Amino acid sequence: MHKHIFFAMIFFLVGSALHTLAQIDAIARSKTNPNNSRLAIFLSCWQTILIRAAWSMAFFTLWLQGQLVAVLTAAKIPLPDTITGILDLHVGGAVAFMAGYLFDSVLAFIPGLKSSVPPPIDAATGLPSGGLQVQPTPVPPAAPEKIDTPAPKG
């Protein structure tokens, strides 16, 4: 039993790592990115990578323990029958690999985990430590009022 879980975790981590490497490669190849060193890109966002890996591992561990559906149900997150069926699958190497790749991909869409670590919360204010950065919304100029003047008679 423990050997099965160990190999599932290894395959999961390999899938997650391959997705992370694919993203780093895409960033390095981007025309808009002046830094094309993959090592420099990794070193600039290693915290985000570790946070995403930890969250992925937490969800995967819940899945391995058979508790993920119960946690999502307790959080009142509705699950379609298709997802419930997938989560009931036996987690072998291939499923674990796909889950690792997929979980990291899904977490990459969360704004705070996409490319940077969210700032820590200041305990006194309850806001991010850098303060709340609010960009003013530009107000369009008011349209001049039209005054209807009667046309001259004649």
For the record, the count of structural domains works out to 1
Report the order of strands and helices.
HHHHHHH
Structural class: mainly alpha
The N- to C-terminal Cα distance equals 102 Å
- Label the overall shape: extended
**Largest sheet entry:** none
Task: Count every helix, treating DSSP H or I runs of 4 or more residues as helices.
Answer: 7
* Count of DSSP strands: 0
Mean pLDDT: 78
Helix content: 55-70%
Radius of gyration: 25 Å
In terms of DSSP E residues, the strand content is under 5%
Spans where pLDDT lies below 50 across 5 or more residues: 131-137
Fold and architecture overview:
This protein is an all-alpha fold. The chain has one domain (2-114). Helices cover 56% and strands 0% of the residues. The chain contains seven helices and no strands. It has helices at 2-29, 38-44, 46-64, 68-74, 81-87, 93-107, 111-114. Helix 1 (2-29) runs antiparallel to helix 3, helix 1 (2-29) crosses helix 6 and helix 3 packs across helix 6. The longest helix has 28 residues, at 2-29. The chain is extended. The model is unreliable at 131-137 (pLDDT under 50).
